[in-house]
Amino acid sequence: MTDILVAGETLVDMLPGAGETLRDVDGFTHRPGGAPATVAVGLSRLGVPPRFWTRLGDDPFGDFLRETLDEAGVPGGFSRRVEGNTTLAVVSPPDADGRRFRFYGSRDATFGFEPDAVPTDALVSVSWVHLGGVALTHPAGRRAMRTLAAAAAERGCTVSFDVNYRPDLVPEGERDAVMEAIRDVLADADVAFASDEDAAAAGLSPHEGDALARDLVEFGPHTAVVTLGAAGAVAASSEAAPWGEAAARHGGFPVEAVDATGAGDAFTAGLITRLAASAGDAGDADDPPDLDDALAFANATAALSVQGYGGMTALPDREAVEAFLAERE
């Protein structure tokens, strides 16, 4: 039985064809997406299939996503089909100015997690819970994710949280409520993930890199990880972490990137796989890694993912990651 529960949205990424701006592209290709869904599939590919609490629209895109999760080995017991059209995340061309994602479709169907439906009963048999931050932009999703994070923390589960702040999804007048929810979930979290851009947009810290990781630990998590794109990632942890007080940096792996969509989610799946193993929660508990090892494994997972097209469809399996690392040793 799986030890990990992932919670958050599943949606469709619309990847652009050739063109300098969205108005110029010659068409789009649809791929499965959503940060938590990509993390869930990434964990499954790495040999740790999680339970996944998500919402799927009752449209053909919802059918497509359910089939994708089934094929990836992600159990469907906690996913719910709801009335409404699936949210589409339209990705801008790589060199276009401005927003990377623009969202279309039903926010209620994709992000409107119901507080009464929080799978607290599942916490009896899981030891790691991962939440995505995008659902916090929806009023119902905020209540649901805060309830899940608090219940998981009270139960003694390791809680990880990806800030993943998307200001375009925050309704007018609700920014303060979203910021409060982010801080509440960080207070219940053990491991926090963020990019420099996420943290700056959410107003969490004026710093970048190592200093940002240390600042995030002050919000409550014992470990904070900051992703730096092609420059790799940094992490900081306090004495409360199972792997002890530490600071780590990994510069990533130079590869020829085809599509960076979902690279951060691939990284998150890789890091959870290694850190859960070190905590004895999942994976190879007999060979506990430290933060340096975990960052290397996570960056290798991300490096392999950007060499294919589509964030979820390009996720590597465990054997590929280990072979990639072995080649570079």
UniProtKB/TrEMBL annotation:
GO MF annotations in UniProt: ATP binding; kinase activity
Pfam families (UniProt xref): PfkB
Keyword Transferase appears in the UniProt entry: yes
Domain Carbohydrate kinase PfkB as annotated: residue spans: 1-317
Keywords: ATP-binding, Kinase, Nucleotide-binding, Transferase
PANTHER family: HEXOKINASE FAMILY MEMBER (PTHR43085), PSEUDOURIDINE KINASE-RELATED (PTHR43085:SF1)
Family the entry assigns: Belongs to the carbohydrate kinase PfkB family.
The name this protein goes by in its record: Carbohydrate kinase
Annotated organism of origin: Halorubrum salipaludis
